[in-house]
Hints:
Elements: E1 6-7, E2 10-13, H1 18-31, E3 33-34, E4 37-39, E5 50-53, H2 58-71, H3 73-82, H4 90-104, H5 115-137, E6 141-143, E7 146-151, H6 158-168, E8 174-178, E9 183-188, E10 191-196, H7 207-220, H8 224-236, H9 240-249, H10 263-271
Parallel strand pairs: 1-3, 2-4, 2-5, 7-8
Antiparallel strand pairs: 6-7, 8-9, 9-10
Amino acid sequence: MSYPAHVTDTVYRYDGTFQGFLCCIFESYSRKEIPAAVCAPDRGQISFYDSCEIVTDPARAQRVARGLERLGPTVKERITTGFLSDDPEHELILLRFARICFEKGPAAARATGDPDICAAFDLERAVNNEACKYIEFIRFEQRDMMLGTVIHPKNRILPLLRGHFCSRLPDEDFMIFDATHGIAMLRRDRKVQYMVMEHYDKNTGQEELDWQKLWKRFFDAVTIEQVRAVMASKSQDGKTQQVKALIQKYGADKLSGVQPEKYADLLRDAKAL
């Protein structure tokens, strides 16, 4: 399918975020060009092409996001899901797909005879299929009063697992560690966050060590507010004396006197009262 733009020999380099990618679409549209490649920081240099550094601008990203909303859920979901792909050309494929849909309208997404439309469809399908496989086969183990598991997906599927497991385990804290990409999805107190393992190397053969580091970081993040909330709940249940004894066990007369590095152990013991 033709574009209202010329294909250049320029490489767009961006910060690897979805907002940054939306800015690549904005830049392509404003320049009336299709880049030769779109590269995140973890990709190698393509020395025989000129580079264009795309700065992430939230206002520009928001303009593109609103445009995708207007194109409807099929186009929007194909781009947001396809962006989770580990295909080295997924950004360029999705940028070309977005340019076609902005030019031709949402019906263009159904023209799977077009190679650019078909390529974007294949990205979305591959990511969704892998997510469905893991949803079916993931098994958790209990660690320190929390559920955890390690997965090895080809694509960055954690966001697609979130809704299913939050619904399936509504009252549980859990962690899913993507060992391929060094990212963990943590659910605690009904809130979800993502953590990246710094300096993670999936080829070290020390997966268990990396898992333990993530576990430690998770518990180090326990705050005094979380401990106080559990203590208050236990006191309301008639366990005031046990609460006081537990605080004294950790070397203090009141909660504010407990050392922060002991919060995780204190929280675990308080939940067990």
